[in-house]
Amino acid sequence: MQAVFQDIVKGDEASVRSRIENNPSLVDAVASGSPKKYVGQSALQVAIRTGRFGIARFLLEKGSDPRFVDVKSPTGWSRSVFHDAAVAAVMRSRWSRRTFNAASEQVWLIAETAKSDEAFEMLVALIEAGADATAVDSLGATPLGRAVLAAHDVLPRRNDEKPELSDGKPLTPELVDDLTRIFELLKTHGADPEQVEPQLEKSLANRYRHELVGKFLKGGVEPDSAA
Fold it and tell me: What superkingdom heads the lineage (predicted)?
Protein backbone atom coordinates (compact mmCIF):
# COMPACT_ATOMS: atom_id res chain seq x y z
CA MET A 1 0.00 0.00 0.00
CA GLN A 2 1.36 3.42 -0.90
CA ALA A 3 2.91 5.43 1.92
CA VAL A 4 0.33 8.22 1.79
CA PHE A 5 -2.46 5.72 2.44
CA GLN A 6 -0.56 4.24 5.37
CA ASP A 7 -0.33 7.74 6.85
CA ILE A 8 -4.06 8.32 6.27
CA VAL A 9 -5.06 5.08 7.99
CA LYS A 10 -2.76 5.89 10.94
CA GLY A 11 -4.23 9.38 11.15
CA ASP A 12 -0.84 11.05 10.65
CA GLU A 13 -2.15 14.34 9.28
CA ALA A 14 1.23 16.09 9.40
CA SER A 15 2.81 13.43 7.17
CA VAL A 16 -0.11 13.51 4.73
CA ARG A 17 0.14 17.29 4.48
CA SER A 18 3.88 17.08 3.88
CA ARG A 19 3.52 14.45 1.14
CA ILE A 20 0.79 16.42 -0.64
CA GLU A 21 2.76 19.65 -0.48
CA ASN A 22 5.79 17.88 -1.99
CA ASN A 23 3.72 15.98 -4.58
CA PRO A 24 0.31 17.57 -5.27
CA SER A 25 -0.70 14.71 -7.60
CA LEU A 26 -1.17 12.51 -4.52
CA VAL A 27 -4.52 14.17 -3.84
CA ASP A 28 -5.88 11.92 -6.59
CA ALA A 29 -3.91 8.82 -5.60
CA VAL A 30 -5.76 5.49 -5.77
CA ALA A 31 -4.91 2.72 -3.32
CA SER A 32 -3.32 -0.48 -4.59
CA GLY A 33 -1.56 -3.50 -3.14
CA SER A 34 -2.41 -4.51 0.42
CA PRO A 35 -4.69 -4.42 2.35
CA LYS A 36 -7.19 -5.25 -0.36
CA LYS A 37 -10.10 -3.58 1.43
CA TYR A 38 -8.78 -0.20 0.28
CA VAL A 39 -7.76 -1.14 -3.27
CA GLY A 40 -9.36 1.10 -5.89
CA GLN A 41 -10.31 3.82 -3.41
CA SER A 42 -9.08 7.39 -3.51
CA ALA A 43 -7.12 9.03 -0.72
CA LEU A 44 -10.22 11.07 0.15
CA GLN A 45 -12.36 7.95 0.23
CA VAL A 46 -9.96 6.09 2.53
CA ALA A 47 -9.76 9.09 4.86
CA ILE A 48 -13.55 9.21 5.14
CA ARG A 49 -13.96 5.46 5.59
CA THR A 50 -11.37 5.40 8.39
CA GLY A 51 -12.83 8.44 10.14
CA ARG A 52 -9.85 10.70 9.47
CA PHE A 53 -12.04 13.71 8.76
CA GLY A 54 -9.36 16.33 9.32
CA ILE A 55 -7.26 14.67 6.63
CA ALA A 56 -10.32 14.33 4.40
CA ARG A 57 -11.06 18.06 4.66
CA PHE A 58 -7.45 18.85 3.80
CA LEU A 59 -7.53 16.58 0.75
CA LEU A 60 -10.80 18.11 -0.42
CA GLU A 61 -9.38 21.62 -0.04
CA LYS A 62 -6.37 20.54 -2.11
CA GLY A 63 -8.57 19.39 -4.97
CA SER A 64 -9.40 15.74 -4.30
CA ASP A 65 -12.35 14.66 -6.45
CA PRO A 66 -15.65 14.82 -4.46
CA ARG A 67 -17.38 12.70 -7.16
CA PHE A 68 -14.79 9.89 -7.24
CA VAL A 69 -16.12 6.36 -7.76
CA ASP A 70 -13.95 3.33 -6.90
CA VAL A 71 -14.48 1.58 -10.23
CA LYS A 72 -11.39 -0.59 -9.67
CA SER A 73 -12.72 -2.17 -6.49
CA PRO A 74 -11.61 -5.83 -6.36
CA THR A 75 -15.02 -6.82 -4.99
CA GLY A 76 -16.76 -5.52 -8.11
CA TRP A 77 -18.97 -3.29 -5.96
CA SER A 78 -18.17 0.32 -6.73
CA ARG A 79 -19.62 3.36 -5.02
CA SER A 80 -18.90 7.04 -4.77
CA VAL A 81 -17.08 8.91 -2.05
CA PHE A 82 -20.44 10.35 -1.07
CA HIS A 83 -21.90 6.90 -0.39
CA ASP A 84 -19.12 6.25 2.11
CA ALA A 85 -19.53 9.70 3.65
CA ALA A 86 -23.27 9.18 4.14
CA VAL A 87 -22.67 5.89 5.94
CA ALA A 88 -19.83 7.42 7.98
CA ALA A 89 -22.10 10.26 9.15
CA VAL A 90 -24.73 7.80 10.35
CA MET A 91 -22.30 5.42 12.01
CA ARG A 92 -20.68 8.29 13.91
CA SER A 93 -23.97 9.73 15.08
CA ARG A 94 -24.54 9.74 18.83
CA TRP A 95 -26.26 6.39 19.16
CA SER A 96 -26.41 4.55 22.46
CA ARG A 97 -24.17 1.62 23.35
CA ARG A 98 -25.26 -0.82 26.03
CA THR A 99 -22.91 -1.51 28.92
CA PHE A 100 -23.12 -2.34 32.63
CA ASN A 101 -22.14 -0.30 35.67
CA ALA A 102 -20.35 -1.48 38.81
CA ALA A 103 -23.64 -2.77 40.20
CA SER A 104 -24.15 -4.90 37.07
CA GLU A 105 -27.04 -2.68 36.03
CA GLN A 106 -27.64 -2.09 32.34
CA VAL A 107 -26.88 1.45 31.20
CA TRP A 108 -26.71 3.16 27.82
CA LEU A 109 -23.74 5.31 26.83
CA ILE A 110 -24.00 7.98 24.15
CA ALA A 111 -21.14 8.42 21.66
CA GLU A 112 -19.09 11.63 21.63
CA THR A 113 -20.32 14.75 19.86
CA ALA A 114 -17.05 15.65 18.10
CA LYS A 115 -17.02 12.73 15.67
CA SER A 116 -20.70 13.22 14.91
CA ASP A 117 -20.16 16.86 13.97
CA GLU A 118 -17.01 16.13 11.96
CA ALA A 119 -18.71 13.40 9.93
CA PHE A 120 -21.75 15.56 9.20
CA GLU A 121 -19.62 18.56 8.26
CA MET A 122 -17.73 16.29 5.85
CA LEU A 123 -21.01 15.39 4.17
CA VAL A 124 -21.85 19.08 3.80
CA ALA A 125 -18.37 19.87 2.47
CA LEU A 126 -18.65 17.20 -0.21
CA ILE A 127 -21.96 18.60 -1.43
CA GLU A 128 -20.54 22.12 -1.49
CA ALA A 129 -17.59 20.78 -3.51
CA GLY A 130 -19.90 19.26 -6.11
CA ALA A 131 -20.66 15.72 -4.93
CA ASP A 132 -23.88 14.17 -6.26
CA ALA A 133 -26.17 13.28 -3.35
CA THR A 134 -28.32 11.11 -5.63
CA ALA A 135 -25.68 9.10 -7.52
CA VAL A 136 -26.30 5.34 -7.41
CA ASP A 137 -23.64 2.71 -6.74
CA SER A 138 -22.98 -0.27 -8.99
CA LEU A 139 -25.91 -2.11 -7.37
CA GLY A 140 -28.28 0.77 -7.97
CA ALA A 141 -28.42 1.90 -4.35
CA THR A 142 -28.58 5.60 -3.51
CA PRO A 143 -26.61 7.35 -0.75
CA LEU A 144 -29.93 7.74 1.08
CA GLY A 145 -30.48 3.99 0.79
CA ARG A 146 -27.07 3.27 2.30
CA ALA A 147 -27.68 5.81 5.05
CA VAL A 148 -31.04 4.21 5.87
CA LEU A 149 -29.48 0.75 6.16
CA ALA A 150 -26.83 2.12 8.52
CA ALA A 151 -29.44 4.02 10.55
CA HIS A 152 -31.53 0.89 10.87
CA ASP A 153 -28.56 -0.72 12.64
CA VAL A 154 -27.97 2.08 15.15
CA LEU A 155 -31.58 3.00 15.96
CA PRO A 156 -33.63 1.28 18.66
CA ARG A 157 -35.49 -1.77 17.36
CA ARG A 158 -39.13 -0.71 17.04
CA ASN A 159 -41.82 -1.92 14.68
CA ASP A 160 -45.41 -0.74 14.67
CA GLU A 161 -46.64 -4.20 13.68
CA LYS A 162 -44.35 -6.15 16.03
CA PRO A 163 -43.88 -4.24 19.31
CA GLU A 164 -42.45 -7.37 20.93
CA LEU A 165 -39.26 -6.88 18.92
CA SER A 166 -38.25 -3.76 20.88
CA ASP A 167 -34.72 -3.95 22.28
CA GLY A 168 -35.19 -1.36 25.02
CA LYS A 169 -32.64 1.07 23.59
CA PRO A 170 -33.63 4.70 24.22
CA LEU A 171 -34.24 7.16 21.40
CA THR A 172 -32.25 10.11 22.69
CA PRO A 173 -32.42 13.77 21.65
CA GLU A 174 -28.81 13.49 20.48
CA LEU A 175 -29.54 10.68 18.05
CA VAL A 176 -32.72 12.34 16.80
CA ASP A 177 -30.79 15.55 16.09
CA ASP A 178 -27.94 13.74 14.32
CA LEU A 179 -30.04 11.52 12.07
CA THR A 180 -32.57 14.25 11.31
CA ARG A 181 -29.92 16.61 9.99
CA ILE A 182 -28.40 13.85 7.84
CA PHE A 183 -31.70 12.82 6.25
CA GLU A 184 -32.84 16.41 5.79
CA LEU A 185 -29.55 17.31 4.10
CA LEU A 186 -29.85 14.41 1.68
CA LYS A 187 -33.49 15.15 0.88
CA THR A 188 -32.74 18.83 0.39
CA HIS A 189 -30.21 17.84 -2.26
CA GLY A 190 -32.45 15.53 -4.22
CA ALA A 191 -32.70 12.27 -2.30
CA ASP A 192 -36.19 10.76 -2.66
CA PRO A 193 -37.51 8.24 -0.09
CA GLU A 194 -40.15 7.21 -2.65
CA GLN A 195 -37.56 6.14 -5.24
CA VAL A 196 -37.42 2.38 -5.75
CA GLU A 197 -34.17 0.81 -4.55
CA PRO A 198 -33.30 -2.17 -6.83
CA GLN A 199 -32.08 -4.40 -4.00
CA LEU A 200 -35.30 -3.86 -2.07
CA GLU A 201 -37.53 -3.87 -5.14
CA LYS A 202 -39.53 -1.13 -3.44
CA SER A 203 -39.01 2.36 -2.08
CA LEU A 204 -37.32 3.08 1.25
CA ALA A 205 -40.50 4.76 2.47
CA ASN A 206 -42.50 1.61 1.72
CA ARG A 207 -39.95 -0.92 2.98
CA TYR A 208 -39.45 0.81 6.34
CA ARG A 209 -42.92 2.28 6.85
CA HIS A 210 -43.49 0.34 10.09
CA GLU A 211 -40.00 0.90 11.52
CA LEU A 212 -38.38 3.79 13.33
CA VAL A 213 -36.05 4.66 10.46
CA GLY A 214 -39.11 5.11 8.26
CA LYS A 215 -40.30 7.88 10.56
CA PHE A 216 -37.00 9.69 10.06
CA LEU A 217 -37.60 9.57 6.32
CA LYS A 218 -40.86 11.45 6.91
CA GLY A 219 -39.35 13.87 9.42
CA GLY A 220 -40.59 15.29 12.69
CA VAL A 221 -39.33 12.46 14.92
CA GLU A 222 -39.39 13.20 18.66
CA PRO A 223 -37.06 11.55 21.21
CA ASP A 224 -38.38 9.42 24.04
CA SER A 225 -39.79 11.59 26.82
CA ALA A 226 -37.46 10.03 29.41
CA ALA A 227 -34.39 9.97 27.13
Answer: Bacteria
